[in-house]
Amino acid sequence: MRVPRTIICLLLVALACLHAPRPLVASSGPGIMLDAPLLPLTAPLVAELVAYTCTATVACADDACTVHTAQTYHLDPAAGIGAATLRVGWPVQAADGAIAPTALALLDERGEPLPIAGHDADHLAIWEIPIERGGRRTLTLSYDYPATASPFIIWSWQVSALSAWGTVPAVHGAFVLPIPAHDDALVRVDPHRANLLGERLWWDYAMVEHYPPHHVVAIAPPVWERLQAQRAEGAHEAVAATLSALQDAARAASIPGVDYTGEIIAELLAALEADAGHTAARVALATTYRTLADEDPQRRLGYLLLAARELATIVEAAGGDTAAVEDQTAALGRIYLAAAETASAAGDAAGALEYLGLARAVAGAHFAEELTHAEELTLRWALDLAEQGRVDEALAQLDGQLAPALYSNLVHFAPPLVAARTEVSLRPSTRTVRYHLEPYPLTAQRLRDQLADAVQRLQGVPCCAVTLEDDGATLLLALRTPAGAPQAETCRDAVRAALHSEQDLVGAILAQPWQEGSLEYRRAAGLLHERHRYSEQVDTTAPDAVWRSEAEYAGWRLVELHNAQPSDTRAHLEHQLALAIMREQRHTWDHLPSASQWVYDVAFADVGAPSASWLVAWGQQRTLVVDRTAPHWDDIRVIALVAAALLALALLARRLWQRQKFTGALPTTS
């Protein structure tokens, strides 16, 4: 049953959300404009700041946005101070070079500009403001600057600088967008406890001594409106592209907490749901997964395989037109290579070899430099597998890459079997021999070929029925021959002759049940019983002798390998690999006798349970004997019943005779 695409989409979005980093506190940096208040330069203060407002209003034309800031200062003369002049300056750090002094306008309560009196190293502009006794002054500082970090608008308000004025009774700060401020459009708002109504976001403070940092990061209104229009039209690929551009811009500007990965993946999956052949969307999805793989080491392999799946779909859809998907093919190969390195770092040598094989098969010609050391990596990973005892996996991954002479030696000295179980059943009409053979992986095909050849020869024996079954893990060879003399002996000789050509261990195991030796199997019928006699000499020393010889050769080869001196790095790796494989083969050779056995059973009827059974171990000589008398209980019961009936009749007749005799002896009356 296929998993619905919607569920897959939700799972991937959830995975991407797990990946998303926790938001960090935004901080000002190069290129970010700060709205900072004017600083008093006269000590002691000749005026008190009783109220302060700062309003930053965003205005956009096409894709360009500017921020207009207006700061209003309400000043009262300080107590005990008569007429005086207040010097104020605007800090250089606030402008960051984006505003020229001529762009600054400080207006008085009548709306008339106050001239700039000068500047110094710390202040972009300095004004001198007359303060009259008992007179309030209201000043407004205004300026414009371009929005930074497009497609975002970043606004920072350095309200903490108001501490230079002492405790200000009333402070108001506002950030105004040209469109309603949607929560999704406000990427960051610090502090979070802000008032939001329509286009306006604001904070109010009263008699506060310390102010927290104030930052707003919003998606530029033209970009936000375009994104909303794309969502309304169902343009999934366009939405994904816009979100990707926003995410890339946020990373370039070091804006924390901006991660649209989950939504990007969902939109691209939706685009592919609507059009499975949408190559651009599939490439974008693969690129997203590849980026996630670089950012998340714990899930790196999973993301790499997701990216590979999308690129493999593109390559497969192209059929044989490799030129049309050359870039995707090369990228797919590199992803498989990265997956191999990731699996290797995680200790998964089998996976590393598999992914390296895919990389080589898919796009080996496109990145020859990356595969310069691939053969050495392959040998290292195969060595890891072999040292873990997973020799068959190691050799399967090394198919065609080992030196022919080395591979030939490994196969030549490998054991043919891991275990063997031979079952010999004798019945009045048939003798059945079943061989359960578990092949050694490296020589499994050789064993199958050998058994197929044996079957072909046995099929030439008319009295022998032979079958061969293979379930992938075990080979089952079954032979059935007549049990009655003299045909049984003749057939036994024919089977032995057909198997005699095999001189190795497998041949010795196959021939063992058919070896020459005394075999007695008879039933002698008596009047009320039957005599059962079975006797057979079983000798399993022939397979043992062959096993000792072949295992000894493997041991000698292992000694030779230990004494070999590799000449270079590759030869050293091949030598270590051969040693690991030969040690595993030696272990299999040593445990083969304990993993093999013969089971004999005999019965004197074609149906029913065996009368007797024996387990014969490797290298034993035994005589199996059954000598028993089987009473004909049915006949005995019939005879007993007849005898009992006759006895009962005799007793009854006697009783009747006695009664008649007694009746005749009685006197008669007249």
For the termini, the CA-CA separation is 111 Å
Query: Biggest β-sheet, characterized?
Result: 7 strands, mixed
Query: What is the helix content?
Result: 40-55%
Work out the radius of gyration: 49 Å
Strand order in space, largest sheet: 6-8-4-3-10-13-12
Structural class: alpha+beta
What's the rounded overall pLDDT mean?
Answer: 83
Number of strands: 23
Number of domains: 3
Unreliable sequence segments: 1-31
Description:
With 670 residues, the protein is α+β, with helices and mostly antiparallel strands. It folds into 3 domains: 34-219, Immunoglobulin-like (Sandwich); 224-399, Serine Threonine Protein Phosphatase 5, Tetratricopeptide repeat; 417-628, no CATH class. 41% of the residues lie in helices and 26% in strands. The chain is built from 18 helices and 23 strands. The relative contact order is 0.06. Mean pLDDT is 83; it is low at 1-31.
